[in-house]
């Protein structure tokens, strides 16, 4: 038990740091950023799950969860991707359920936006 707690306390700062900072995209990769919002003056929507799949495929390669700022991002290899909301936060409904198609290119940022209607 003591060893387990010691390991958890030693690794906790490492995991928190990995979540809080975004690593730059590796060579040959770009960044995909999702933006979730509600209202005319965009208000961020927290905890929306967005599934990422390569275009023409059904296998999910990643799931991004929007943060308090309504955004999440990750590095992906060059290519075409579809982003689709997989989980809508409580009290909200998705304004448009169609997936958003984006092209990720090396050294650039592709953005996919999702508008919600929240109570």
From TrEMBL:
Record keyword Signal present: yes
Taxonomy, superkingdom: Bacteria
Alphabetical keyword list: Signal
Signal peptide: 1-18
Signal listed as a keyword: yes
Name of the molecule in the record: Prealbumin-like fold domain-containing protein
Provenance organism: Nocardia rhizosphaerae
């Amino acid at each position: 038990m003591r060893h387990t707690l010691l390991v958890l306390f030693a690794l906790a700062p490492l995991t928190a740091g990995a979540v809080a900072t975004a690593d730059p995209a590796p060579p040959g990769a770009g960044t995909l950023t999702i933006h979730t919002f509600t209202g005319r003056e965009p208000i961020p929507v927290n905890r929306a799950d967005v599934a990422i799949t390569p275009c023409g495929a059904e296998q999910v390669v990643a799931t991004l969860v929007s943060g308090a700022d309504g955004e999440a991002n990750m590095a992906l290899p060059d290519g075409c991707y579809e982003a689709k909301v997989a989980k809508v936060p409580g009290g909200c409904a998705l304004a448009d359920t169609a997936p958003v198609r984006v092209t990720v290119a090396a050294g650039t940022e592709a953005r996919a936006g999702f508008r919600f209607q929240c109570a």
